[in-house]
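$ fold --in a.seq
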Amino acid sequence: MLTEKALDQALEVALRKDENFLKWFVNKAKFKGINPEYAWSRSDHPWCRVKLCLPNRKTGEPEIVEREGETIAFAWCWANAW
């Protein structure tokens, strides 16, 4: 039987390397209907705070934002819908 850590890592690899899986996974959440692009992920820390450079939703200009998460695999994906 796989450990939780092994499953976390497998999910991260799938999100990073399989565009079809990434789209399917993201569309199962509240982001249905967008076309995501993989940007960043990690599966080695249960809680983390990261700084990311993301486009501002209103202006499209890049801005530094801080995100926190307690997740199995923390992933950030660009949404082409912006």
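$ fold --in b.seq
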Amino acid sequence: MRTYNEILGYVEKKFYVMPIVEVLDNKTLRVMNKISRLIPTISVNIHVDSMSKELISLTYDCSGIVNGLLGGVVGFIDEKIPKQQVEVFTNEK
């Protein structure tokens, strides 16, 4: 089974929350977090479209609120990969 302890540890340290990661299939993850009883569970499905030595193409499905939170994930990736190798394309309406 795959584990995502490094990313989960970073999120817990940086944002003081521990999300739940669920593997939906061999290319899709669901990341969920229940903040409180008054706030509904937030989740995002992340799908790996393609991967090569030079490129990882991801798509995600989430609400607008979660879309704003993804800035933290992009920041984590940005710290791990040289600047010239990271491009973020959005399909915002």
